[in-house]
Design brief:
By secondary structure, the chain is of the alpha+beta class. The protein has 4 helices and 6 strands, in the order αββαββββαα. It has a 6-stranded mixed sheet with strand order 2-1-6-5-4-3.
Amino acid sequence: MDEFVIRDADKIVQLWSKTYNTDGKPDWSHIMPYYEEEIIFRDSIQEIRGIEPFREMTERLAKRSKKLNMKVLRTVMKDNTIFVEWEMTILFKKTRTSVLYGASRLTLSEKGKIAEQRDYYDLWGDIFDNIPGFRKMYRRFMKRKFG
């Protein structure tokens, strides 16, 4: 029996809490065995296929940020899909702290590993909200163009 299997949403909370809530930089090394070799990851800015490109992406994120924490708010599991709602607090090297609000959809393989991860968040809105003077302009533009 493979020890790196996800059977419930609580396992995701346990793994993600350990990943991001360390002092300072995040560490994904303990969670990598829970991903399929052919992982498909997608978010607002990129699509990545394969465990090595995924690992490289996590290392880039760690290098770009001075500090990164994630608070898991809710998890729901149905069949082989887990939804995770989260708040990520990130301190980039040359900016102030930003909070990103988002959710992730994790699809598990038959082996119980993460085969697909799709992250949903408003990267620019959450970052621009923390730039004095830019927030109002950005939100006014978004309302005028999209809603």
